[in-house]
Amino acid sequence: METDTNLDTTRAELLNDDDEQPTKIIVVGTKCRQDPELQKAIKALDIPVTFSNTGLEHIAEAGTDDLLFVIGDFQDEVFHKLHRAEARIVGPPVVIKCAKYNQTIPQCSRALYCTSMRGLIVCFTGFSKQKLVKMADLIHHMGGSIRKDFIPSKVTHLVANCTGGSKYRYAFSCGTPIMNDEWVSKAWSMRDDITVKADCGELMKHRMKPFYKCFLSFHGFSEEEKKHVEEMTLENGGTLAPIGHEDSTHLVVDDHAVKELPPISTPQFVVRLEWFWASIQIGACADETMYLFDEHKQEPQNVNKFTPTSAMSKARKRKRLKENIALLASEGEIDSPFMYAKRPSFERVSMSPNSFLDASGTPEKSSFLQDTTQPLADSPPKPQSTTKASPRFQVVTELLQTEKNYVGILETILKVFKEEIEKPSQYNGPLLKPQESKIIFGNIPPIYEVHCKIRDELAEILSNWREDHSIGDVILKHAEKLGKIYPPFINFFEKTKEMIAKCDKANPRFHAFLKRCLTKPECGRQTLQELLIRPVQRLPSVMLLLNDILKHTNKSNADHGKVEKALAALKEAMTHINEDKRKIEGKVAMFDIVYDIDNCPPNLLSFHRNFEMRIDVMEISGGLSGRGDHLSLFLFSDSLEICKRRMKALNQMKSPHHKTPHKTPQKAFKHLEMMPLTSVKRVLNVVESDECRNAFALICRNNSEFKEKLYSFTIDCDETKKMDFLTALSKNMANTMCRADYENLMTQVDGKEFNIDMTDMGTNSISKAFKFGKRVSRAFSFNKTPRKLKRAISNMSNMFSQFPPETNTYMGTPGSDLRGRRLASSIDLTDASSPLSSLTNIHEDGFPDSDTVSLGAFSVQDLDSPTFTQPSPMVKRSMTKYMTMGPNSTGKYL
Fold it and tell me: Which of 340, 379, 684, 810 has the largest count of CB atoms under 10 Å?
């Protein structure tokens, strides 16, 4: 209900250019007197100030503009007395703000507590007079003004208490923000903050929701759909009501599933589902009269349209069957040049929702194409020959028809989706940000322009058809352009889908828009993602049709060779598209890799470098991180990045329950070494055996020290096969060294020749013990163990107990775990017979030498290091033999 009010004010009252600074300030009340910010501001204004408990002693001179009263409470009796005396009253925020920004204190006829609504003109609708007067006073105290009549050029905000009425519709159509009454009260509660503006920031979240005070019922929905629309109703301020309930204001009907209403007392509005999504999309209650559900306009179902009656004769049945088959077969040829008159029954069928889809799910035609019910005046005439159209003509016609369908889909994407999404004049602004819209639609316009030209040229050929007309020339003319416009779209198609899914989930207006588009016939009940996949499929479809044209073209026809050239050009274009896609995916993967590696070398990300593949391994040698450590090898076109896998970080990435919001998440990989492929001299494929499973090794040479090192690994994943990785590594090594014989860079060896042994890597405990012994050997003397390591030593000792559980019979039953562990914890670590003594070589001073730590496997150290546990002469000879880069007399590498 709209109520008249005489509270109209004008902008001039609040934006007076002739504001004059007062000559004296009266600070009223103890609270204002003790406000340090206010005292500092008055001092900065350099105006004489007087402190008073009530200020009433100056009421006789209150009517002058030279005297300014500063009051902190606009609700007490002192304020009302001074206000009735027409005193010039402001709140502390006004003085503080003017002093901070060196402004003149505004002069107006109304009391002004703050300026958070200065410059705003507000109109009301739907409130009682008592509520209206209260809100009008608050708006005046915050510097705003009031208008009784809604004039778009003079009203900045409408405060409403209902979703109907002329003011509401007018404000919505003009794009004026429609606020609820909480907007005024929230702005008043923040009146002491001088940085707050009522028309921006958090306060603009108090827009009126689309279904405010609406009671919605739903009919014709599945359980899943009903649950979804009910959730959206509650999120947008609506209330759910059972069908037929007396409080129900709207009955929302799925017009695709419901033909007539149930026998219930209908509410005020019975609307189609499109009204529901349109309201959420625009952020306001859409006009119900535009979306009314009229059951009488629904097309009656005719399930027996093609079913002959039992009384028909056999001949009549055969004739009817033939007609039905021809009718359905020609349904996809609505715009075909040789289609003429159609029966009325066909027109009804062609306008059904299913007629917008061809066999592949493609909409048969867009609303932007010519209406099939109109006379085909602009359609090309049929061939002059009275004989049946040739097979070549029919296939070319099919090519034109699919091209029209495809252009219609692209036009639907641009007109129905892109233009509506980017339209700035819609209420609440564009649906998506410019960068989001560019990611989704940015590569479509060039594709649309080229295919429009192809469509027009094909239509021109068919309108004056001759068998010697060249179809190959049309494709060859645009082949180069097709090879340029498609890669940007196809390469980033996955990103496009991700952006659509992200916006659909995070933006309710965009979600409602997509749902609303599903009801439009030109979209063929297909989602935006389903329509956007058509450009990915188009070039292969054109190639199939060109193959059919080639089959029906005589070799004597000049177009035969041109069609072959067109096919070759399209095939080459698709090859380049696939290659570009692979390169782009590699570049994108490089950014992800760099982001996931801690301490990643900055030069890893390079324009000339491409990512090839990744393989997860366990280290056998121990020269990079430690024997048994989990590593990942990232193979690039010219280098090999070796990282340590942080299993805890990887598990946290997989499980969201372990996230710590107050901590920076640990990266999944830690950089160990970036190895140029030029330093890898030979790839060793270790023969499979019981001791070596899925093992391989690399012989590398440090370019600065010219020392050979051997790194051995075993594959720790099932996704990548060993030979696939070794072959890719060898090929990239050959490319880097400008060699053509990549097979000769890989050699098959026996693991025993290089001490590559995995017999002790079956359990994690041995691997952890080895790493622990190597890590702490420098940290303590065995004569005096630090307190922090007592527990770790005890745990490590359990692994090497002289009394294993299965043979322990001392003071316990056979196989007693407890007794075995007790005895193990009391082992003398300095005892020469202790198993732990074999882990290290002990110097005379009692400290171990960690560089000689070994568990019997081949340790990777500098071969010339004096502390290195020298391998056997056989191992030395083997490494020297396989470092030979040239073949022997038999042509094989030694």
Answer: 684
Using CA atoms, how far apart are residues 385 and 31, in angstroms rounded to an integer? Answer: 101
pLDDT, position 649 = 59
Per DSSP, what are the bridge partners of residue 217?
Answer: 251
> For residue 190, what pLDDT is reported?
93
Contacts of 752 (CB under 8 A, 6+ apart): 691
Largest pairwise CA distance in the chain? 122
**Alpha carbons 548 and 562: distance in angstroms, whole number:** 14
pLDDT score, position 241 = 93
Closest CA to 489 of 451, 523, 456: 451
Which burial class, exposed, middle or buried, applies to 755 when counting CB atoms under 10 A from its CB (0-12, 13-18, 19+)? buried
Looking at residue 424, what is its pLDDT? Answer: 82
Q: How far apart are CA 190 and CA 202, in angstroms?
A: 11
* 186 contacts: CB under 8 Å, gap ≥ 6: 203, 206
pLDDT band (50, 70, 90) for residue 562: very high
Strand partners, 71: 28
> Across the chain, what does the average pLDDT equal?
76
The CB-side HSE value for 466 (13 A sphere, CA atoms) comes to: 7
Report d(CA 31, CA 33) in Å as an integer.
5
CB of 619 within 8 A of CB of 625? yes
- Spatial CA neighbour of 65 closest among 99, 24, 27: 24
How large a percentage of the chain has pLDDT more than 70? 69
Residue range 597-617: mean pLDDT, rounded: 85
Measure CA 288 to chain center.
34
Q: Locate 504 and state its tokens.
A: 């659909």
Give the model confidence (pLDDT) of 11-38 as tens digits. Answer: 444 444 445 677 788 899 888 988 999 9
- Listing from the earlier edge strand, what are the strands of the sheet with 157-160? 145-147, 121-125, 157-160, 178-179
Cβ atoms of 734 and 855 closer than 8 Å: no
Interatomic CA distance for residues 450 and 454, integer angstroms: 6
Cβ proximity of 882 and 682 under 8 Å: yes
Q: Which strands form 746-749's sheet, in the order they lie side by side?
A: 597-598, 669-676, 639-645, 630-636, 611-619, 708-715, 695-701, 680-686, 746-749
Residues 745, 733: contact at Cβ < 8 Å? yes
How far is the C-alpha of 93 from the C-alpha of 454, rounded, in Å? Answer: 68
Which residue is listed with tokens 């910010």?
Answer: 37
Candidates 63, 85, 83, 60; CA nearest to 71 is: 83
- CA–CA distance, 271 with 291 (Å, rounded to integer): 5
The helix-helix angle for 273-282 and 508-518 (nearest 10°) equals 150
Q: pLDDT category, 337, cuts 50, 70, 90?
A: very low
Separation of alpha carbons 27 and 58, rounded Å: 11
| Residues making up the chain, counted from first to last | 894
Cα–Cα dist 580/483, whole Å:
11
Q: Count of CB atoms within 10 A of residue 453's CB?
A: 14
Q: What sign does the dihedral 303-306-307-308 (CA atoms) show?
A: positive
The tens digit of pLDDT for each residue in 714-742 reads 998 877 889 999 999 999 898 888 877 88
Taking each helix axis from N to C terminus, what angle separates 493-506 and 434-441, rounded to the nearest 10 degrees? 140
Name the strands in the sheet holding 239-240, side by side, starting at the edge strand that comes first in the sequence.
239-240, 215-219, 250-253, 269-272
Percent of the chain with pLDDT over 90: 34
Distance CA 274, CA 866 (A): 82
Query: Which residues partner with 147 through β-bridges?
Result: 123
Query: What is the C-alpha to C-alpha distance for residues 842 and 783, in angstroms, rounded to an integer?
Result: 12
Q: What contacts 277, CB < 8 A, 6 or more positions away?
A: 512, 513, 515, 516, 519
pLDDT tens, 410-462? 999 999 999 999 988 778 888 999 999 999 999 999 999 999 999 999 999 99
Decide: 539 and 574 in contact? Cβ < 8 Å.
Answer: yes
Identify whether the C-beta of residue 372 lies closer than 8 Å to the C-beta of residue 335: yes
